[in-house]
Amino acid sequence: MTRLAAHATAALLLAGIGGQAQQHPTFFSRAVGVRVDALVTDGRKPVAGLTAQDFELRDNGVLQSVDVTIASDVPLNAVLAFDTSASVQGKRRRDLIDAGDTFLDGLKPVDRASLLTFSRDVAPRVRSTTDFAAVRTELDRIAPGGLTSLMDGVYAALTVALAQTDPPLVLVCTDGTDTSSWLDPREVLEAAKRSNAVIYAVTSADARRSTSLADLANATGGQILSVKSSAELSTTFRRILQEFRSRYILTYSPTGVRAGGFHAIDIRVKRRGLVVRARPGYVGLESGS
Amino acid sequence: MTKLRAIGTAVVACASVAVTHVTAADAISDATAAVIQKWANAVEVHVAGHPDEAVATVCRMSYRDRVDMNAGLDLFLTALQGAEYRSKDNNRAVQAVIAAAHRAGQPTPARFLKRAAILHADAAIYRALFPRPAETTAPTIYDSMGSGVRVPPLLNNKRFATDKDGEFVGSGIADWNWPFARDLVDRLVSRPEQGSDPFLGAWYHAIAAWMLANGFYGDAEDHLHHAAEILPNDARVMFDRASYAEILGFPKSQVLPASSPSGGLVAVHIPRATDTNAEAERLFRRAFQLDPTFVEARVRLARLLDVRGAHAEALLELRSALETNPPRIVAFYAHLFAARAGLNAGSLPDAANHYRDALSLYPNAQSALLGVSQTALLAADVTGALAPIERLGPNPVPPDADPWWQYDLAAGRDATKLMQSLWAATPPGAVQTARLH
């Protein structure tokens, strides 16, 4: 089967940094290219201050010339995908709403947020907006009930993220496992490989750890985190936002590699002892497509 | 609110508890005669499908009442069917039971047995409307593996695990009315393999549908296992059994064992998905062999073939199914599964077409909308991938908007219609004034 494209918006890349971090950076567009978000850590602590010279990126084994931007220098696009199934009631509901508010508190005026909930129904509630009050209003309206269409919800969130040009963070919060989706994990993983989003997933510790969700997070260079109780959600969401802003955005136009098919990406930093977390690859468009 | 679901296969006793109950060998007492007479009267006056006083009478029966009744039940049912009973015991209670049986057996024993089976089914269905009596003397009989303990249906106090949205939440006691009703309706045939009375098949199928519709999987397992013994050549029974096996293979069933507490007396055991899917595949094939017009059996079989990796075979079955111009909901399933099988077989355009055909049948079906989006995404059509997602609104849609949400109901989709037909087929009660008290 011919593997088809990473989506158009991911292919149309914004690269380079102009101006200072505190002001709106100046960007220029390049020809079709690839953007990869990477988190660099020393132990558990994100590493700051790296530049393009510190990175080595190989696309299907071929070294590429990259530009590097810090995620905090560009507007963030957050897609909040929250489980609102029957088990999210009472205190869990309240804690989820509070955590969502905490997350929104950490956004800048240039950032954008959207809200999607999933129980059995997948419900896009708020489109990407800078009007965080609208998101808060919808958060307050969450009425838990029904089964859990986790994979369907994650797929919808990834698709919503496709429309964003700025680095999309898909924040999935669920306390259970999938009980009613149509799409299966394999299909959603294929979507994730074609997405530009980074998935951070938060699950409750007493839920069976979803290997599917872990696979999705890993495929996008994100992470899956467990909380012992819903009371920890606010702290966790805040931490995710801080970590996401500390990521680096590497952009490049692939050279020396065939356009189509799956491209394995290998990113290293020259300084020893640091760990890089990034998506393991992407699906490229065939030439002439 | 997600219904709590009893899971039958679920119960595995860690400690075997077999409690000796009062057997029929005990004397038939005045209490036995009284409770049997009261019960027989309830059978005669019950209006099928209604939570009436007859149902209340049954629901109010305590375990002690059932023990008393059980002592004389064999005698009653033997006499009901006209067998001559020679008793060395001329006590008043024995004679009263025999007399009650003879009255009940007019004009035919089958009339009474059918009515009784309906009464007890209705008592199980409407149980929640009546308070359960305090069972202070009731032992809990765990269905321990290999114990060989045969519990009289009337005294069944089996435990089942219950779950909510894939999480084990506890256990409960199964309703004795179901096994007792089966015991009664099974007496319609002199030999199990005959099953010629159409009421029998209709009863088993309608009750199975009701159980699946309401998530009573624990009761459904025993019910369907028994139905297969009584009606081995009934396509509907095969279909129901296959559907139950298929349900066990779904993620919401497969996740349950991990959530059940360890070290307790009740644990959850669900067969592996590959095993239960193989069983479902076998039974759907059998249902289709018994009734070649049973197109939904063919469609469900195809889904399992695709899950197993036999994509081409699945597509053939689905193509044949669609050529029969099946009912709308079955056609939707066929297109949905053909889309996935097409993707698995490497044909994106065919998959996209099938998803669009599914959507044309149910325009608000979330499953089909996601499928259309998915095939667009795979074709690098971002606009095409986004548009269906935008059709998913912020407000919940009716449950029947997406047939995939009803897939695990199987025959339960038609539970109401099937039960109404069954109630309509119930023979009339005896024309007599009966006192329930």
Chain-averaged pLDDT of chain A:
85
The proportion of residues forming helix of chain B, as a percent range, comes to 55-70%
**Integer-rounded radius of gyration of chain A:** 18 Å
Total strand segments of chain A:
17
The chain-level structural class of chain B is mainly alpha
Radius of gyration of chain B: 25 Å
Question: What tags apply to this protein structure?
Answer:
heterodimer; A: 289 residues; alpha+beta; six-stranded mixed beta sheet; five-stranded antiparallel beta sheet; 7 helices; 31% strand; globular; B: 437 residues; mainly alpha; three-stranded antiparallel beta sheet; two-stranded antiparallel sheet; 5 strands; disordered N terminus
Describe the structure in your own words.
The complex is a heterodimer of chains A (289) and B (437). Chain A is α+β, with helices and mostly antiparallel strands and 289 residues long. Helices cover 25% and strands 31% of the residues of chain A. Chain A has helices at residues 8-11, 91-105, 132-140, 150-162, 185-193, 211-219, 233-245; strands at residues 14-15, 28-29, 34-42, 45-46, 55-59, 62-64, 67-70, 77-83, 112-118, 122-129, 168-174, 198-204, 223-227, 248-252, 261-269, 275-278, 281-284. In chain A, strand 5 and strand 6 (62-64) form a beta hairpin. The two termini of chain A are 15 Å apart. Chain B has 437 residues and is mainly α. Chain B is elongated. The longest helix of chain B has 18 residues, at 63-80. The model of chain B is unreliable at 1-5, 8-25, 142-146 and 432-437 (pLDDT under 50). In chain B, the strands form 2 sheets. In chain B, strands 1-3-4 form a 3-stranded antiparallel β-sheet. Chain B has a two-stranded antiparallel ribbon with strand order 2-5. Chain B has helices at residues 30-45, 53-59, 63-80, 92-104, 109-125, 177-186, 198-213, 217-230, 235-248, 251-254, 256-259, 273-290, 295-308, 311-323, 328-344, 348-361, 366-378, 382-391, 415-424; strands spanning 5-7, 12-13, 159-164, 167-173, 266-267. Chain B has 19 helices and 5 strands. The chains are: A alpha+beta (289), B mainly alpha (437). The A-B interface holds A 1, 4-9, 85-87, 120-125, 138, 145-149, 152, 155-156, 159-160, 162-163, 176-180, 182-183, 187, 190-191, 194, 208, 285, 289 and B 1-2, 164-167, 251-252, 255, 258-259, 336, 343, 346, 348, 366-367, 370-371, 373-374, 377-380, 382, 385-386, 389-390, 392-397, 404-405.
